[in-house]
What we know:
By secondary structure, the protein is an all-alpha fold. The protein has helices at about 1-25, 30-50, 60-80, 85-140, 145-160, 170-180, 185-195, 200-205, 215-220, 230-235, 240-250, 255-260, 265-275, 280-290, 295-310, 320-345.
Amino acid sequence: MLFIFYILFPVFVGLGALYLFFKGQRDGLGYALLMFLVCSGIMYWSITQSSSSTAAIGFLFIPCFAAACSFFIWVFWRLQGRASRVFKVLGFVSLFASMGICGYGLYSGLQQRQEKLNRYKLAVRIQEQRTRILQNFSHHAGAEAEWIKQEIVSRLETHTHTRTHTDLQLEDEAFIAAALTTNYVDREVLAMISLTENLNTVAAVIKHQNSDTKLLEEIYDRNKDKSQLDYAFALNHNTPAAILEAAYHRSPYIASALAKNTNVAKELLLILSKTNVHANDLDTFASIVRHAHADCDVLNAVIRSLQASEGAVGENQSENNNENRRESQRLAILKDAELKMKSVCPSQ
Length: 348
C-alpha cells in the first residue's frame, strides 16, 4: 500500500500542477518546478554515493521525494502572503519540510561517501599490514603463530579498559584483518577477537578455518540478531547444521554458499532443491548435485525443479547470449543429476 502511495503521489502532484497551469493560477509553480529538479538531483547524487547492491531501488522513490519538496514549496509560496498568522506558520512549516527532505538527501549522501572513503582507507591499510606481516614472518620463521598472537593480543589489550574491543583504531583493525587472512591465528586468539562489535572483524573470525564448532556456536549465541553474519557462517564447514538452517531461513540469499558447505544436513539440501530455478540459482543446484549428502530424495527434487524450469531460463535465447549459456548450464546440471541418480539409486 505504501509503495502504491510512492508511485501515485508524484502523479497527483504533477496533474495538480498542470491543472493550475492551464487554469492560469501559476503563482509558485516555477519555484515548485525548480525545487523538484533540485531535490531530484540531490536524491540521485545521494543514491549514487552508496556501494550497496540494493541502492538502485532508491531511484524508484526519487519522484515521490521530489514531488513532496515541490508541493511544500508551492504551499509556502501560496501561504506566505496571507494575513493570517496561522497561514504564515503553516507556510514556514512547509518550507522547513521541503528543506528537511533535501537536507536528508545531502546528509545521507555525505554519510555514504564517508563510509566509502573509510572502506578505501581500511583496504589500503590492510594491504600495507599484510605486507608487513609477510616481512615479519621471514624474521620469525617457525614461530609465526606466537608472533601473530603477541601482536594481536597487544592491540586488543590497548582497548580492554576503554572500549572493550568495540572500536578498534584503524591501524589495529587493519592489522587484525590482515592477520586473519593467514593460518597462524589460533583458536584462543580468534575467541578474543570475536568479542569485538565490529561485524566485519567478527565475520572474518567466523570464516577462519581455525574457528571450531564450539567457537562458532559461542559467536552465534552472542549475535543471533545479526543477519549480516549469516553468509560468513555459511562459508565455514565447521558451522553446525542447526545454525546453517537458521541462517538460511533468515537470509535465503546465502543458498549458493550453503550448497557448498559439507556440514549442511540433507533436510536443508532438500529445501534448497525444491526452490524455483532462476538464473542465479543454477550454481546452487550444481553444488547440490555434487554434495555428499545428496541422496535419492535430494537428486529427485533437483531433477524435478530443473525439468519444471524448462524455458523459464532461456526464453529469449535468440536475443541474449547470456540466456543461451544459462540454458546450456541448466541442461548440463540436469544431465549430471540424472547420471548421479543412476549411480546412487540404481533401482530408480
